[in-house]
Design brief:
Radius of gyration: 19 Å
Shape: globular
Number of helices: 12
Strand content: under 5%
Structural class: mainly alpha
Distance between the termini: 48 Å
Helix content: 55-70%
Length: 265
C-alpha cells in the first residue's frame, strides 16, 4: 500500500479514519481488535525468560533460587557472579521490549524505518478524545503494556513452574519499550534512575525514582499520553513497593549485587 501521507502531523487529515483494516472479501479488523492482538502478542514476547534461559545454560541452575528470586538481569549477576552475563541479560530483556514496540509503531504509522519506529508518540498530534487519531497512541501503548506485563508475569515461566506468579519488575524491558515508544521518556527515566543510584547508593531508590519520573516527565513535556505514563509508572512502582518500604526501614542493602546478600522479592 502506498504511503498516504509523508507528514506525521497531517496524517490524520489526509488519511482515511482507521476504523477498520480489511482485505477484499476478508473480515475487517477494528482498532480495538488490533490493540488486543498486539497486547497478546507483546505479552508472549515479553514473557520470554531470558534470565532463566541464560542462568540455566551457564550454570545449570534456576535463577529463581538465587538473590531476589526475580527473572531479571541483576539476578543473573547474582546467580553467575558475572557482569558479562548480566549485560547479555540486560540487552536481551531490553530488546524484547524495544523490537515489538518499534515494529508495531512502524506498522501503525503506515511506513517502516527509524522515523516511524522512534518518533515520540506524544508528538504525533494524537488525542484520546479524537477517534481518528487516538489509535496512534493506543495500539503502541498496547505493545508497551504487553511486553512489560509479560516480563513481570511470564506465561512461559508459569508453564515451567506450573504456577502463575510475578517473575520480574519490568525495568530493562520497560526501558527498551520506552526507547521505541518515546525516546524522551527513556532519557528521563534513565537519567533520573542512575542519578538517584549515584547519590543514594541504593538501587531500589533509583528504580523507584525512575518509575515516578515517567508520569512526571510526561506532564512536564505536556504529552497527551500522560495517563498511560501514569499507569505504567504505577505498575513498575507497585512491583518495587514492598522492598522500597523495606529500604525506608533500613532493611535494604546498598548496591545489592551478590547472592544471599539481601531480601527476596
Amino acid at each position: 500500500m502506498a504511503r498516504c501521507c509523508r507528514s506525521l502531523a497531517t496524517r490524520s487529515r489526509c488519511c482515511p479514519e482507521p476504523s477498520s483494516a480489511s482485505s477484499p472479501g476478508g473480515p475487517s479488523v477494528t482498532p480495538v481488535a488490533l490493540s488486543l492482538a498486539v497486547l497478546l502478542g507483546a505479552y508472549l514476547i515479553g514473557s520470554i525468560p531470558w534470565a532463566y534461559i541464560i542462568v540455566r545454560a551457564v550454570t545449570g541452575e534456576d535463577v529463581t533460587q538465587h538473590g531476589t528470586g526475580n527473572v531479571g538481569a541483576m539476578n543473573v549477576r547474582r546467580s553467575t557472579g558475572s557482569w558479562g552475563w548480566f549485560a547479555v541479560a540486560m540487552v536481551a530483556d531490553g530488546m524484547k521490549g524495544l523490537i515489538p514496540v518499534a515494529v508495531v509503531k512502524s506498522g501503525v504509522l503506515g511506513f517502516a524505518g527509524l522515523a516511524a519506529a522512534f518518533t515520540p508518540v506524544g508528538l504525533l498530534g494524537a488525542s484520546y478524545a479524537d477517534p481518528t487519531t487516538r489509535w496512534l497512541m493506543i495500539v503502541p501503548q498496547a505493545a508497551v503494556a504487553g511486553v512489560v506485563f509479560g516480563h513481570n508475569y511470564s506465561f512461559w515461566m508459569a508453564l515451567i513452574k506450573r504456577h502463575f506468579a510475578r517473575t520480574g519488575k519490568g525495568l530493562a524491558t520497560g526501558a527498551g519499550a520506552l526507547l521505541a515508544y518515546d525516546w524522551r521518556y527513556f532519557v528521563i527515566v534513565v537519567v533520573v534512575g542512575l542519578t538517584t543510584i549515584a547519590i543514594t547508593r541504593y538501587m531500589m531508590a533509583g528504580q523507584v525514582a525512575a518509575a515516578i519520573s515517567l508520569p512526571v516527565g510526561a506532564l512536564v513535556l505536556g504529552s497527551p499520553d500522560w495517563p498511560f505514563a501514569l499507569v505504567m509508572g504505577t505498575v513498575v512502582y507497585a512491583a518495587h513497593h514492598k522492598r522500597f518500604i523495606g529500604m525506608l526501614q533500613g532493611k535494604e542493602p546498598k548496591l545489592y549485587v551478590n547472592d544471599r546478600m539481601g531480601p527476596r522479592g
